[in-house]
Write a structure and sequence with these properties.
Layout lengths: L4 H7 L7 E7 L2 E5 L5 E4 L6 H6 L18 E4 L12 H4 L6 E4 L4 H7 L6 E3 L5 E4 L2 E7 L10 E7 L2 E5 L11 H4 L5 E3 L11 H11 L3 E2 L14 H11 L4 E2 L7 E4 L7
Parallel strand pairs: 3-4, 4-5, 5-6, 10-11, 11-12, 12-13
Antiparallel strand pairs: 1-2, 1-14, 2-3, 7-8, 8-9, 9-10
Helix pairs in contact: 6-7
Length: 262
């Protein structure tokens, strides 16, 4: 019998000094810490974007909304593939879950009927302590229509992962994230709607000083594009010190990679 991703995440034991990262598809990732804290960042688990905009979902979801067991759910901006307004009300049925969002997400939390104590706002230049995790809001440029979009740096036990968020290539404006010296960077590579393409993502990985780069934001919608092969080749040419890590849906990767889950 195939074990569902949600069950694996629930049963996963994360060793001290490591951090588990699971890719959900699109920009969605799950982080699990040695203390058992679970953070979902930008989970897209429904067909909300198809319902609202007609973009057909081409990749399934390894986790259904009613399977999510999260301490925190973070949304980097209010676009539907990052703030999934069909999935989030289902996730919110679990009183354990606290929501963190960019400033444009707050009105949507209010419309969902979330009590004020169950959500927090995060802007670039701010940080929050979430149990054993520190969450840093960092600069992202997702165009004039999305001025509150951010990236996030997830920090636990000295490990820092930069989830870049939706953004154009603006390394001169991204010194807040680069200055945090992330060991892992997770950039979009779709090259549409103002986002990095695979070459720019490799360039940013090199500038960031990260050891590893996990590409995301590809193959979910035909309209979004994305070429992981381009990213891998660009890393070889432009970021030779960065190790690219290509994850399949629902796959969990441990940093540092020499440590394995029990």
């Amino acid at each position: 019998m195939t074990i569902r991703t949600a069950q694996r995440l629930r049963e996963l034991t994360v060793a001290q000094g490591t951090l588990a990262i699971t890719w959900l598809a699109q920009a969605g990732c799950v982080f699990k810490t040695p203390a058992g804290t679970i953070l979902y960042v930008d989970p897209y688990l429904s067909d909300y974007v198809y319902r609202m905009h007609g973009f057909k979902r081409l990749m399934g979801t390894p986790v259904e909304a009613d399977e999510v067991e999260a301490d925190y759910v973070i949304s980097t901006h209010a676009h539907g593939d990052h703030l999934d307004l069909d999935a989030l009300p289902i996730i919110a049925r679990n009183p354990r879950t606290h929501f963190v969002g960019a400033l444009d997400c707050i009105p949507e939390y209010e419309r969902m009927g979330l009590p004020r104590a169950r959500y927090s706002a995060l802007a670039a230049g701010e940080h929050l302590t979430l149990g054993d995790v520190t969450l840093w809001g960092v600069y992202a440029d997702h165009g004039e229509g999305t001025p509150h979009a951010i990236g996030v740096v997830v920090e636990c036990g000295g490990i820092r992962v930069w989830q870049v968020g939706d953004t154009a290539y603006r390394p001169e404006r991204m010194q807040d994230a680069i200055g945090l010296h992330p060991q892992v960077i997770i950039p979009p590579i779709n090259g549409a709607f103002g986002n990095l393409d695979g070459v720019q993502a490799a360039q940013l990985a090199a500038v960031s000083g990260a050891e590893y780069a996990i590409p995301c934001h590809f193959w979910m919608f035909a309209e979004h594009n994305g070429n992981p092969a381009q990213f891998l080749e660009a890393c070889r040419e432009l970021a030779p010190k960065v190790v690219p890590v290509l994850l399949s849906q629902g796959e969990t990767w441990i940093y540092p990679p020499e440590r394995r889950p029990s």
